[in-house]
Design goal:
133 residues; alpha+beta; Jelly Rolls; five-stranded antiparallel beta sheet; three-stranded antiparallel beta sheet; 3 helices; 38% strand
Amino acid sequence: MQSFIVRTKKRQEIIEITERIKEFVAKSKVNSGTCFVYTPHTTAAILINENYDKGLNEDIIENLERLIPSNASYKHNKTDDNAHAHIKASIIGPSETILIKDGKFQLGRWQGIAFCEFDGPRERKVYVKIIKD
């Protein structure tokens, strides 16, 4: 298992990490297998979605904010004031699984892998595990 650090700059943002993960796959020389991407943070998530139009990331953040507003009255906010971030991360999830065939990800034409920050800015860790078939 390998890892890398993502340094977020905003309270909420989505950061493209596909190329960083592709580097791990290339170095592994795995021709056929599975790649697991995971973040061990309860207020962050990993997402596979379109990575061509960066406006989509803004749409995702804006609509999650509309559904789960940062300034709502949550019980957890008495402890940490970040309940909205936990809820958003729970919906998207901490991991994604990508198949590898012929040494390449089996992602759709417009798909990419992104790190989602909901309680930044922070320094976050992402783990990558590649398993050969």
